[in-house]
Amino acid sequence: MPTPELISPRSPRVAAARRLARRNFRGKERRFIAEGPQAVREAVGHRSGGEATLVELFATVEAAERYADIVAAALDAGARVHYADDEVLAEVSQTVTPQGLVGVCRFLDSPFEEILRARPRLVAVLAHVRDPGNAGTVLRCADAAGADAVVLTDASVDLYNPKSVRASVGSLFHLPVAVGVPVEQAVQGLRDAGVRILAADGAGEDDLDAELDAGTMGGPTAWIFGNEAWGLPEETRALADAVVRVPIHGKAESLNLATAAAVCLYASARAQRAAGGCRSVTSC
User: Fold this and answer.
1) pTM confidence score
2) Which of 272, 264, 108, 121 is nearest to 190 (CA)?
3) CA–CA distances in Å: residue 50 to residues 46, 53, 108, 220, 272
4) For the purposes of burial, counting CB atoms within 10 Å of the CB of 228, is it exposed (0-12), middle (13-18) or buried (19 or more)?
5) Of 221, 168, 177, nearest to 199 (Cα)?
6) Where residue 280 falls among pLDDT bands split at 50, 70, 90?
7) Is 222 helix (H, G, I), strand (E, B) or coil?
């Protein structure tokens, strides 16, 4: 097994990794940064299109000793591993306090058509979501709820924004994610695949509790989540089979996007797993 090499702050490899902070460079190189032991560990075990997702790893000597299993797995997977001092980590990291491991990864988003062919049962669609932290957190919630996929529309934030990647806490590597899909195409494709479309909106005509009580949420479902500040535009709401609000029983004015998404996704997950729930399009 090769030995990690010591790298200089002036290395072209460091400069190339640093440029991945910019969206246009990420798109050109089809590479992004994953930071910290959790994200790097998930990246090491992930493959996309038959190729290892992690292509390069920068690690301080201390981190390499602490996470020797991650470094060994990265080397075994064919990634280039560099020993780096604090100056190098500061150059390639996107955080104020780097955790000693920074990975360079290949893009891993899935074609939307591939997601449809898998006959998904639970999908989160992010329409007009602009905050990268929210996008990553919703992705994490979808992963935790057992969703089959996440779709980011063409009006949403970049999946590979460093804040999105960090907020997903490794969930980016767990489930298929499609990006840049027009919302009309996403809705039509999912509906044609037998998926019911629900739009989550605080002003929705239907109540989530009432939907659960009526037993209407056991089938394949896609939830559309909108912009953090102004929700879903009317034309997007009109695409859905129902516009559903999360009931607020206390005095809170509203729920933030990620909290509402977690409530909705878990409600669907529970209904699908309950007696009589439909967890497959083909078995409905």
Assistant:
1) 0.89
2) 121
3) 10, 9, 11, 29, 32
4) middle
5) 221
6) very low
7) strand
Condensed to tens digits (0 to 9), the pLDDT of residues 119-142 reads 999 999 999 899 999 999 999 999
DSSP output for 146-167? T-SEEEEETTSPPTT-HHHHHH
How far lies 171's CA from each of 2, 39, 128, 144, in Å? Answer: 29, 8, 21, 8
The identity of residue 134, as a single letter, is N
The CB density around residue 11, as the number of other CB atoms within 10 Å, is: 16
End-to-end CA distance of the chain: 51
* 274 Cβ contact list (under 8 Å, min separation 6): 218
Mean pLDDT of the chain: 90
Q: Round to whole Å and give the CA distance between 212 and 203.
A: 18
Which contacts of 213-219 are long-range, i.e. CB under 8 A and separated by 24 or more positions? 215/271, 215/276, 217/267, 217/268, 217/271, 217/272, 218/271, 218/272, 218/274, 218/276, 218/277, 218/278, 219/272, 219/277, 219/278, 219/284
Residues 6 or more apart in contact with residue 229 via CB below 8 angstroms: none
Q: Which whole-number Å values give the CA distances from 113 to 48, 110, 214, 281, in the listed order? A: 16, 8, 32, 16
Compare 50 and 69 and report the one with higher pLDDT.
69
Q: How far apart are CA 261 and CA 230, in angstroms?
A: 15
Q: What is the pLDDT of residues 3-42, one digit of tens each?
A: 566 678 888 999 999 999 999 999 999 999 999 999 999 9
Task: Please state, as a whole number, how many other Cβ atoms lie within 10 Å of the Cβ of residue 216.
Answer: 16
